[in-house]
Design goal:
alpha/beta; 7-stranded parallel β-sheet; about 40% helix
Length: about 350
């Protein structure tokens, strides 16, 4: 298979590329911003997703069998302040990519998010119901709106061979650019590396418990969802596997957990002192900065139908952290791991 990956120097993209190369897949990766931090054995194609004609030209040139579209803007403040530019990149750019895939007969896998849902808990319920692949979305911030808009446009495009893989709370090693690893606390559910980095250094790890945090979600190991997205790139609902009944798949960890419990699971997996975990109210300066931006509260996802369709269940919390501990030890013991 000839695979084109956007966002190849990102967390998810670098894990897809690493796994695909281990399987002998030919890779072309788009690049925008920092270059990989060591020599790679795949082709890099500089690409600005705001340049829609360049997107079409790149796909026409490389003629991939499949495209996994991982590239995305993640800065919530930037998205809120630069809506037109971000829409051009995130929505119009995805449409241009999809049209090019349709033109060359490539299958497109679009990486979406659990943040297409609001994460709200119904009155009288202490635990949110899990969202299914077919549950009505209701995003509460512009990032979720753009992901949903792209999902809807792809679903409505005639002649496009497409699957959507929704991710959640992704953590792991960036095998292309380790220095880009996010090691900061935050309102979202992507704080695992921050906790690991603090605990393994013997430092306290503040875990924001609210207000305005994504309190419950599905932590997802990047290498685990990379396998699911690769399966989705090869997926054929007519080829003997059971389809979900839609083109949407929940390629996230199979277990939901709250922030504080996740931090304690991390401490156990890395043999760290759980006393270093400090439940802390959300920083007031961050609350002020994000005052106009909604954050999903508790996002529980149903993953059973996706597991059946793709032939495997994603890791639960302990399995994911155990696998990551092995990746972490291998990476730092070796010093440099080639992509």
């Amino acid at each position: 298979m000839r695979l084109y990956v956007t966002g190849g120097t990102g967390l998810v993209g670098s894990n897809i590329i690493r796994l695909a190369r281990q399987r002998g897949v030919e890779i072309i990766a788009s690049q925008y911003g920092p270059e990989p931090e060591w020599r790679v054995d795949y082709e890099l194609d500089p690409l600005n997703l705001a340049d829609h004609e360049a997107i079409r030209a790149s796909i026409r040139q490389h003629k991939p069998d499949a495209v996994i579209h991982c590239a995305a803007i993640l800065d919530q403040i930037f998205m809120f302040e630069q809506r037109e530019l971000c829409w051009s990149i995130m929505v119009d750019g995805t449409r241009a990519l999809a049209e090019a895939c349709r033109d060359v007969g490539a299958r497109l896998v679009f990486v979406s998010s659990d943040w297409v849902f609001d994460g709200l808990v119904d009155e009288g319920e202490s635990t949110p119901r899990p969202y299914k692949e077919t549950s009505p979305p209701n995003p509460v911030n512009f990032y979720g709106v753009m992901k949903l808009a792209s999902e809807r446009e792809l679903a409505a495009m005639d002649g496009l061979n497409c699957g959507v893989g929704r991710l959640a709370g992704v953590y792991g090693l960036n095998y292309a650019a380790p220095s880009l690893a996010r090691k900061e606390n935050g309102l979202g559910f992507d704080f695992s590396i921050y906790v690991i980095d603090r605990l393994t250094a013997g430092l306290t790890a503040d875990v924001w418990t609210g207000p305005k945090v994504n309190d419950v979600a599905h932590p997802t190991l990047a290498s685990d969802c990379a396998d699911m997205l690769l399966r989705l790139a090869e997926h054929d609902s007519q080829g003997g596997r059971v389809d979900t009944g839609s083109s949407i798949f929940h390629c996230c960890g199979s277990e939901a957990i709250n922030r504080l419990d996740l931090a304690h699971q991390i401490a156990a997996a890395f043999a760290a002192d759980p006393a270093l975990i400090v439940p802390t109210p959300t920083d007031q300066a961050v609350l002020e900065e994000y005052r106009h931006i909604g954050i999903p509260y508790r996002t529980r996802m149903s993953t059973e139908r996706t597991a059946l369709a793709l032939g495997r269940r994603a890791f639960n919390v302990r399995e994911g952290l155990a696998a990551f501990r092995e990746e972490w030890d291998e990476f730092w013991n070796c010093g440099v791991v080639t992509a």
